[in-house]
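Next up, sample data.

:::
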Amino acid sequence: MHIMSIISDIMKQTLVLPVSTKKVLSVFGEQIKLARLRRNLNAEVVAERAGISRSTLWQIEKGNPRVAFGGYFMVLFALGLEQDILLVAKDDDLGRKLQDAHLIARKRAQKNTRGKPL
């Protein structure tokens, strides 16, 4: 029983995220909710299609970081938005700049293999 109480305590701990990350998840959840409402679908229908409970859907729509990524993805699928996930990091400007910074080619003089001046 001691192990169960430890697990319970761990599950109750608050997930500490940077404020900017919380904001992104909150906006993401709100966008999912708006997509559901634009389709005129109630929470029960979307939750059923996604294979999750209504309370999990509500947590997703709030941007709860404790909800597994699969839950978020299944809701996107239920809304017909699963392809949108492919847009994440598609235009990785920072990553491309970092990559390009390491790819600067050094120019070398042409190798003289005949022993003659070039």
